[in-house]
Write a structure and sequence with these properties.
Largest sheet: 6 strands, mixed
Radius of gyration: 23 Å
CATH architecture of the largest domain: Alpha-Beta Complex
Number of strands: 17
Structural class: alpha+beta
Number of domains: 2
Helix content: 25-40%
Number of helices: 13
Shape: elongated
Strand content: 15-25%
């Protein structure tokens, strides 16, 4: 489950801070860092960021989808969509900064005039850059761009664009039909390239190594915040920012955590869920183990049952299968094992799409009949949550292939050693 979603609940402040922080150099570890974490080293060599040529290819794909969808243009503001298509990284504020992609040609840009120099550092594709002064309307300028490019019929906006921006455009161009850009944005971003998959594979491998080092460092009395701090450092030692949600014992029955955490005790389950980003691409790994004692029969049975459910979901993930069938496969295993029906013990969907955003199109959930296609990436994360007792979740990232699916981390852990690959 993505750290951004947990931040909305206010339950993962340490992870939130880590996700925004640059990777910490390997020689800058705190003096009290456990040896298993201190031994970690940079793991990012050999995989580079997305280059301009790839952004241009994405724009061409977007233009083809504009035509197929009967849309005239796609308007992008600050956020993941803008970065995906153009490489520009710009923080969201009340001032509009963004790009317009039409059916042909390079993007046009609309930028705040006083930010023109900084904007120029971000604009890699397109030379039509129009600046608006503080007393002027960026939406009037956007409307003029669309008129100049004869793209004033059906104008799509990135669905994550704030309402104030899309409404401002609609007011400035009343003759246009302003609508969601999902057919283009999701149409492009749902299918990952080989480069994107390579980045995600490495990010998830780094995350598994981090969680393994953290599990090896546990001791009685630790707080969840302390272990979450170790998770941040274990990722940073390997060259990646990020963080984790950490839950002990009965607290793990809350999939997104609790406001009343307890210190670690022997015999409790420990759930670590999170990840980071490598060159903009996310990891998301959950491992659950039993700390300091031999697992009870019930703990092992539930652990194994969740693992079987994860395997069932993985086997159901094949090209052409509807997304909902993957959720159903995992849920059937749990129900057959006495942990059903429906959402009684597995309280959430079995998976979410993942890429540049930790949660993105599309979702492995009942009712989603979208057929799976090669290049789609998802979390596979069934769980069993027993209030007042425990929670166990296993999460890995899978990619749909021509013949089925691939687990990007191919793990083989146990309740005693949950982060083995």
């Amino acid at each position: 489950m993505d750290a951004a979603r947990r931040r909305l609940l206010g339950l993962a402040a340490p992870a939130a801070a880590a996700a925004l922080a640059p990777a910490r150099p390997a020689d800058a570890a705190p003096p009290d860092l456990p040896p298993a974490i201190e031994a970690l080293s940079d793991g990012t060599a050999g995989v580079g960021p997305i280059e301009v040529g790839e952004h241009r290819a994405r724009i061409v794909r977007a233009q083809r989808l504009l035509q197929e969808s009967g849309l005239d243009a796609l308007v992008l503001g600050p956020g993941t969509g803008l970065t995906y298509f153009t490489g520009a990284v710009w923080g969201l504020s009340e001032r509009f900064f963004g790009a317009v992609i039409t059916r042909e040609g390079d993007p046009s840009w609309v930028v705040p005039a006083f930010e023109s120099a900084r904007g120029a550092e971000q604009i890699r594709v397109g030379t039509d850059v129009r600046a608006w002064e503080e007393h002027e309307s960026p939406y009037a300028l956007l409307a003029q761009v669309l008129r100049d490019r004869r793209a004033t019929g059906r104008v799509a906006v990135d669905e994550a664009l704030p309402f104030a921006f899309s409404d401002g455009l609609a007011q400035a161009l009343p003759a246009a039909r302003v609508e969601s850009g999902v057919p283009v944005t999701a149409g492009c971003r749902m299918i990952k390239s080989a480069h994107e998959i390579a980045l995600m594979r490495r990010a998830n491998e780094i995350t598994v190594r981090a969680w393994r080092a953290v599990f090896a460092s546990l001791r009685p009395g630790l707080t969840q915040d302390a272990v979450a701090g170790w998770c941040q450092q274990a990722l940073r030692r390997q060259g990646m920012g990020g963080g984790a949600l950490v839950l002990f014992g009965a607290d793990a029955a809350f999939p997104h955590g609790t406001t009343k955490p307890q210190p670690l005790r022997s015999g409790e389950v420990v759930l670590i869920d999170g990840g980071g980003r490598l060159h903009g691409y996310a990891s998301d790994i959950t491992r659950t183990g039993v700390f300091g004692a031999r697992p009870t029969d019930r703990q092992r049975r539930i652990w194994d049952l969740v693992r079987s459910a994860q395997d069932a979901a993985f086997k159901a993930a094949r090209p052409g299968a509807p997304c909902e069938s993957v959720d159903a496969a995992a849920r059937a295993v749990l129900a057959d094992g006495g942990f059903g029906p429906d959402y009684k013990y597995l309280t959430h969907r079995v998976g979410h799409g993942i890429g540049m955003d930790g949660h993105e199109w599309t979702y492995l959930v009942r009712g989603n009949k979208t057929p799976l296609r090669p290049g789609m990436c998802f979390s596979d994360e069934p769980g069993i949550y027993v209030p007042g007792e425990l929670g166990i979740r296993h999460e890995d990232i899978i990619v749909i292939t021509e013949g089925g699916a691939e687990n990007l981390t191919k793990w083989s852990g146990t309740p005693e050693e949950p982060a083995v690959v």
